[in-house]
Model the fold of this input.
Amino acid sequence: MRCLIVSDIHGNLAAFDAVLEAAQGYDQVWCLGDIVGYGPDPRECIQRLQSLPFVAVAGNHDWAVANRLDLDEFNADAQQAALWTYEQLSPAERDFLAQLPERLVIGQFTLVHGSPRYPVWEYILQPSVARANFAHFDTPYCLVGHTHVPMIFALTEDGSRCRTYAPRPDGPLALADAPRMIINPGSVGQPRDGIPLAAYAILDTDAMTLAFHRQPYPIEETQRKMDEHALPRRLSARLSFGW
Ligand code: ZN
Done:
């Protein structure tokens, strides 16, 4: 099976559509949460995802908009965007977000938004945090989002150390290279690694490879819509820089 792995779409339809167009030929979409929040097209992104063969887990922004999390945990810009997003969605769309599960297990893969230890909130950026999280899932591989930074954490054969590395540009990652890994495909709608291109990954469950990709999209189209809706300027500006 060929799976399109997406995370942190964040209501950015131009980015999501560019990824769907570029990915082509996938059997299923695996979404790692934060479909909405920040961006100008929350409804359209939900509807686009629902039009595809997909599975999805809940992100903190999804549950905030669905009233399952306290907005006090968010910074001022994120709060403003979450309140605006709430207003845009129908009750059925908010229910859809509320009912997203915290965790899914599909074959050899566990899917969560943040981390297997604290699925909705924890950021895995440091090897020490990744290392502690290997005890919290049973499958060989765990797919996470939330940090908006594409990254791989691999446990060594003897399980004593955790290596961190950025995705290789020269070809797909062979999952057999390490017995256990935590993998983040990066963010479709708000990259934060200094590269302002939509990020996604293609998982081939037969070959057991995972390829990371970056895709240009019309950033100014998303920024124009954010400005029209008076969403915080800082949120639209950061899309140009990928931070
Ligand atoms: Zn996010």
About this structure: The pocket of zinc ion is lined by residues 8, 10, 34, 59, 61, 146, 148 (CB under 6 Å). The chain has a mean pLDDT of 95.
